[in-house]
Amino acid sequence: MASPEETLKQIQKALRPYIKPREEASQIRRVLALHLDACLEEATAIGPLSLVEANKPAHTSTSRGLQKEYLDALNANIRARAEFKACRKQMNPRRKEPTPDEPPKVDYLQEHLATLSLQKKHDRLLAVERHLDLLSQKPAASPSFLEPEKMFRDSRPLPNVPKDVVTALALNNSNPASSQLKDLIHQLERHVLRAKLQLKREEQLLEEVKSRTTVSPGTVSNHAKFEALNRTRTELINWIETELSAAGDGASSPGDPTPYDQTDMALLDEHIAGIKSKYRHYVEARKSLLHLVSQSSKPVIKPRTEATPQPPPPAANPPPPPPSSHLLAPYLEKLLAVAREQKGLIAQKSHLHATVTKQLKETRQALDRLAEESQLIPAHPMPGGRRHNPSASGGGGLGVSEPTTTLDASARVQPWVFAAESAKIAALEAVADKIEEGQAALDKSMGVLAEIDNQLLKGDEEEEEEAGGKGAGEESDIWLAEGKPGGKAAGAVKKSLTREKVKPKAERDVFELLDGTLGLLRSEGGTTP
Description:
By secondary structure, this protein is mainly α. It has 5 domains: 13-96, no CATH class; 108-142; 150-213; 222-304 and 325-400; 436-525. The chain contains 15 helices and no strands. Keywords: Coiled coil.
């Protein structure tokens, strides 16, 4: 008897020509429909082929073309199936024909496939259970497996720090200026060599511990460890970027020494010392945090001295110590909150420092540019001062504090203040000189006008005297002519004529007399302001 797989392959091979994908079947239907439409030649079909019953023969009298061939093939199929059923009845008369109301028979192939899948799943579960049983038999499953005293009982203690290293560090910390460069290089090389040797020893100890321990289980999951390490890395990167931005905003190019070099160096040393202390605190906090996170999964290697003997192992396994995670959780939350607050304060301080530094830098650049373009400062230079070199402190200094930049800005503003005061005083002096010159010219012109007025008054008096003498003679003549006929009229006419002659002379003013002689007066008296 063939196996079920071979039977399945034979069935698939026999049904392969008749089983087609859904897209291909729909494409075949569309092609057949187009072909039928072309054969009908825009004539209405007698009846749709989808309504033809597969059990009853169809009438082909009204059909033609491919439709008639299809119906003939359908009738032949119906007759063949009827003959097949009759043959089956003759071969097996006891077999009952399935009625449409009866449920379909069970598919043995699907049942066999389901049985195989369940068998595979059962085998996998058995393998998992078997390996769990094996792991439970390992010594790592016991509560006392991760005790450091038992785990590192046979390991060698860590080496002590040499005395010369401690002495050299103490000397360097006490008097760093006296150490020479070569001594520092030699000490650094010795430290690097010792660190490499100690690293090799620790790696050997780690390999020995790994060889003795089969599994290193821990209560902390890998996801929690990954999150803690990722958060620590993010905090470190943010802190480094903040410090670099705070230090880089005040970076300057080398130039001429300024009078504030000593103050800048002192402030720079203080700034570097503050950064070192912050970084040292950060490293200590990071180490403590990593120690707390990995405390339950990674044992701490405690050195064992030769003088103190190891206590004998206890006869019975002591009860495991109670977990201390619930005691550390609130402190860790507070530490994280304080760290976030400090981070926010540092970020705000760095932002304010960067903003103030940027504004001061722009102010210095604007003052330098205006000083170069100004004509007031060269005209009124400040005595005892020198012009500031913009290239010497154009970008500021590394770690320069705000008081230094404020002094620098005030030093740049002082020449402007002095030049403005000098220009104001010079303008007031020039105005005073012009006023004095104008007053002198005005006094001189007033004297000339007074002389002209005196001359005009003298001329008027002489004319009046002459006119008075003539009038007296005429008046005597008038009195003599009164007895004559027409004497009154003649006297009145003469009097009116003398009045008309004298009146224009009395009404003449100064400006009428000066008409035509203004240039001569100006040439004599000088120009007025």
